[in-house]
Design goal:
Layout lengths: L5 E6 L11 E2 L6 E11 L9 H11 L3 E5 L5 H8 L3 E3 L4 E3 L3 E2 L9 E6 L2 E9 L6 H6 L4 H11 L5 H12 L4 E6 L26 H9 L2 E2 H5 L29 E6 L3 E10 L5 E5 L8 E8 L2 E2 L3 E7 L2 E7 L6 E6 L5 E7 L17 E7 L2 E8 L9 E4 L3 E3 L4 E6 L8 E6 L19 E4 L6 E5 L13 E8 L6 E10 L1
Parallel strand pairs: 1-18, 3-4, 9-10, 13-14, 24-30
Antiparallel strand pairs: 2-3, 3-15, 4-6, 5-6, 7-8, 8-9, 9-16, 10-12, 11-12, 13-15, 17-18, 19-20, 19-21, 21-22, 23-25, 25-28, 26-27, 26-29, 29-30
């Protein structure tokens, strides 16, 4: 099938957004920017209660960039409803600022361009929810058991992020991390707060929040609101039954972390009308988490040269930047390395080129200054209505044998996932449930890959290993939710 795409080439050194704010730091020739950040778990795509209220609340809060959790494939829909141009389904990110990503790091962070050529890094995290530490304490677990669970469930999920973040720390690039960490803060569970809530039975040095601080991050809410008695900042949960049980363990588990910034200006919550520490609200409130809204003063760094493709339906916008723009050109190569097209950027006023792309295959895009390649990136044209495919390596598996699964044409969202369910069990029955009450047995994430393969076995998440002899269904599910896109049978024999 042929896909015609027109390329609109925009030179970022001639783009100016009048909504960007500027704040000059005293005794410095450099410029800092006031950036408003929102972390928002929107409950299974934001449309379980009232999608329009999600949009209304975001408009009230007026952030510049949003990191979502539980987006369930609705990132493009939210961006369109807000009228925002820039979004990234891999990171669950919507931004007023242009987004710059590279293939090697795109699942972990992107760069946001607050002004032409000036960037900071942005990342978004959603750590596993179960078993939930405060519930363990409420139910009588000793502290050593609770901390062991944190290591097994959440702490080591940060290993891969810390490794990637290290390069940003070394380069002193400002980094913002939003997220639902499903773990309280050691700064909240202190001697002064013991017994303030039924589950807060003793002081706990929660290891996930401590690790983030040890990496060099600031907990922006607690930085702006240091008195935990005055501003507990509870984000889980404002909702009421039947969504959340009446005896739920409320705590602060959603965060905006920052490193290498100038300062935290302000931090508050968005939530339900009349909610504690809530500044912006709507009724009905559309989520089971309050959101965190922080304003930071950030001194962005001058970016290296880059070239960034952004597909918009039948057109592709290519943004680029180079400090030296005297003799720039852009070249496109197909997957075999053959030159498809080349055009010279003759002057700063030239901002549009049209290109016909005949095949749905990957393209390598290079930005050159004279004959020197100063930046490159990759682009794979998206085609809608391609049905996802699941395939097993063989028809039957023995008990205790790892199961090899291949997938194609997945949406490529951040948390698309593959799970094994008992035959006859509906994935939708797991809405609002947590382990051990869910019916899935084993699962793994696709990590935003449209195609790939994985093995479900002893090391997989879930509590179903080893699978006993019987009939099962393997599902490809949408973006951390329970909507099955395709499923296939699995037979396990003795």
């Amino acid at each position: 099938m042929k896909c015609r795409i027109y390329l609109i080439v925009i030179s970022v050194f001639i783009v100016f957004n009048p909504n960007f704010s500027y704040c000059t730091i005293a005794n410095s020739n450099e410029v800092s920017d006031s950036v408003r950040i929102l972390s928002f778990n929107i409950l299974y795509g934001g449309d379980e209660i009232d999608f329009d209220k999600v949009i209304e609340l975001i408009k009230k809060a007026n952030p510049d960039v949003i990191g979502f959790q539980e987006a369930e494939g609705n990132i493009p829909k939210i961006a369109k409803s807000l009228g925002w141009k820039y979004y990234d389904s891999r990171l669950h990110l919507i931004s007023k600022y242009p987004i710059i990503s590279q293939k090697s790091s795109a699942w972990y962070y992107v760069l946001l361009e607050v002004r032409p050529g000036h960037v900071f890094a942005f990342s978004n995290i959603h750590l596993p929810s179960d078993p939930y530490g405060p519930d363990l304490i409420k139910n009588g677990s000793p502290i050593d058991s609770v901390i062991k669970n944190e290591y097994l469930t959440r702490y080591h999920e940060l290993d891969k992020f810390e490794k990637i973040y290290d390069s940003l720390f070394q380069a002193e690039i400002p980094l913002i991390v939003t997220g639902d960490f499903n773990s309280p803060s050691h700064r909240d569970w202190i001697d002064a707060t013991v017994n303030l809530r039924p589950h807060l039975k003793y002081k706990v040095d929660w290891i996930v929040s401590k690790r983030m601080e040890e990496m060099g991050f600031i907990d922006t809410y607690r930085e702006a609101n240091p008195d935990v008695l005055k501003n507990p900042g509870l984000t889980w949960t404002p909702a009421s039954p039947p969504i959340v049980p009446a005896n739920e363990t409320h705590d602060r588990i959603d965060y905006i972390w920052a490193s290498n910034i100038e300062k935290v200006i302000h931090s508050t919550l968005i939530g339900e009308e009349g909610g504690k520490d809530v500044t912006f609200s709507v009724n009905p409130y559309p989520s089971d988490h309050r959101g965190v809204l922080t304003t930071c003063l950030i001194k962005p760094i001058l970016s290296n040269a880059y070239i960034q493709p952004i597909q918009l339906k039948d057109s592709l916008i290519i943004r680029y930047f180079s400090i030296d723009n005297s003799n720039l050109s852009i070249q496109l190569f197909d997957k075999k390395g053959a030159l498809c097209d080349s055009f010279q950027m003759l002057d700063a006023n030239e901002n549009e080129k049209k290109l016909k792309i005949e095949k749905r295959e990957s393209y390598r895009i290079q930005l050159k200054n004279n004959d020197l390649v100063v930046a490159e990136n990759y682009f794979l044209p998206a085609i809608d209505n391609k049905r996802p495919i699941l395939k097993l390596a063989k028809n039957e598996y023995k008990e205790g044998e790892p199961i090899s699964i291949e997938w194609k044409n997945a949406p490529g969202h951040r948390f698309d996932w593959i799970a094994i369910y008992p035959a006859g069990k509906e994935t939708s029955n797991d809405f609002y449930k947590t382990e051990p009450y869910t019916t899935y047995l084993l699962y793994a994430y696709t990590y935003a890959s449209e195609s790939g393969s994985l093995i479900l076995g002893k090391q997989s998440k879930g509590n179903g290993w080893p699978l006993k002899a019987g009939q099962y269904r393997i599902h490809l599910l949408l973006d951390d939710g329970y909507r099955s896109l395709v499923d296939i049978p699995l037979k396990v024999i003795k």
